[in-house]
Design goal:
Radius of gyration: 55 Å
Helix content: 40-55%
CATH architecture of one domain: Distorted Sandwich
CATH superfamily of one domain: Glucose Permease (Domain IIA)
Structural class: alpha+beta
Number of helices: 5
CATH class of one domain: Mainly Beta
Length: about 325
């Protein structure tokens, strides 16, 4: 059997051609053609299906990368904001602590000055103040010294002084000129030597009379030679008396505060003219009210400060004069 294949091709002019091929070559050709066809189909399938899928995946990957970058930027911004807030919080805490320290130091200084002023007042008027009581509480536990113990002790001492001084008859009961002082004097009616238990302060009719300390009114009535009369007990062995009033504005048993108006100046009772007879008594015995009335002088700034203020005012006037000239 021949393995050759004869192919005869005839033309229009009765010409013929004869191709002589082997069956093996034909098989190889067919196999190659079919393989090429299959390869082209595979490539076409990839072009129409796999490549778009790859593009979609690439787009998704790109989108995810962008989202990841945005997330990282947001995280970085949040981190910076948190850091800024922490820095701001630290600064605010530091500022608050500084302000707290300034206020505490100012308060301590003010309390110290107030306590020193009260001690100076008490010392100048010769009043014996009791020893400051120690704070106590019925509790136990380990001892832990507080950081602000000095401030607390100063505050306690200052408050104790203020409570004490509120019941001391300090200052003037009414403005005016002292017409008769405490002690021995010549009686204005009979010309004889007599003891004057208080201080007389002259003034116009109706001028306000104020209490010089907190207390309770123990007497308020017309008291013979004293005329319209008020007596106030201050609860610390001290009492004050106000005589020759025009009007009494408080009643017996009434609680009084320092500076409260209790009456008006007059000329009632054994009196030669409008004035206030003012007494300060300790254990019911009269003492000189002058020291108690001169407290306002102790509150005035020292002479050095006054001189410094005058110098500053003079310098300021000179500067202003130069600018205007």
């Amino acid at each position: 059997m021949s393995d050759r294949l004869h192919i005869i091709i005839s033309g229009d002019e009765a010409k013929t051609r004869r191709l002589l091929l082997s069956k093996r070559k034909v098989q190889i050709f067919l196999f190659a053609t079919i393989s090429l066809f299959i390869a082209l189909n595979v490539i076409s399938y990839n072009n129409f299906h796999i490549i778009p899928s790859n593009k979609a995946l690439n787009n998704q990957i790109t989108l995810l990368n962008n989202q990841l970058k945005e997330s990282l930027l947001v995280k970085e911004n949040l981190t910076l904001q948190v850091q800024d807030l922490q820095d701001l919080n630290t600064k605010q805490v530091n500022i608050f602590q500084q302000e707290k320290d300034v206020l505490l130091n100012s308060a301590v200084t003010e309390l110290e000055e107030r306590s020193n002023l009260i001690e100076r007042i008490i010392s100048n008027i010769g009043v014996d103040i009791k020893e400051i009581p120690k704070r106590s509480n019925n509790s136990g536990g380990p001892f832990i010294a507080p950081k602000d113990s000095i401030s607390q002790e100063l505050l306690f001492r200052s408050n104790y002084y203020m409570e004490t001084i509120n019941f001391l008859p300090l200052g003037h009961p009414t403005p005016g000129i002292v017409t008769s002082r405490f002690g021995n004097r010549i009686d204005p009616f009979n010309g004889k030597k007599a003891f004057h238990a208080g201080i007389d302060v002259g003034g116009p009719y109706g001028q306000k009379i104020v209490a010089t300390a907190d207390g309770i009114v123990t007497r308020s009535f017309f008291n013979g030679n004293y005329g319209q009369y008020i007596e106030i007990c201050h609860g610390n062995r001290y009492s004050t008396r106000f005589a020759h009033l025009q009007k009494r504005l408080v009643k017996r048993g009434e609680k009084i505060k320092r500076g409260q108006t209790i009456g008006t100046l007059g000329n009632s009772g054994r009196s030669t003219g409008p004035h206030l007879h003012y007494e300060v008594r300790l254990n019911k015995k009269p003492i000189n009210p002058g020291k108690f009335m001169q407290v306002d002088k102790l509150i005035r700034p020292p002479t050095i400060k006054l001189r410094a203020q005058k110098i500053l005012k003079i310098k300021h006037r000179r500067v202003v004069a130069k600018k205007t000239s």
